[in-house]
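Student:
Attend to each token:
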Amino acid sequence: MSHSPSTASPVEPQRFAAIALDSFGTALLTATGMPTDRARDVAAILLEGDLLGHTTHGFALLAPYLKEIESGSMQINGDPEVIADKGAAVTWDGRRLPGPWLTLRARSGRGTRG
């Protein structure tokens, strides 16, 4: 049995402006009740993952995040709890807050001391 070559043209992936994706992600997260500053941070970090080619850590996580927020598994308000502060290292309980937001806080030094 012979197969003829496909004449269908490959589907071109859709492209979107990064600023539009950032706004879209922020809007979805704020619609859950997440404070705007946190939603902006989470969307920006997820978008950065995609832009750097780490698609497993990009907007692919947005739908699961929304489900976790809806179910109450991910918290949208509150702050991490400082478990230990040893000067050079601080240990937090992230209290099920969004990981990208916690990472930005840790990286910037905001709220990291006990």
Notes: The first strand starts at residue 81 and ends at 85. The two ends are 73 Å apart (CA to CA). DSSP finds four helices and two strands in the chain.
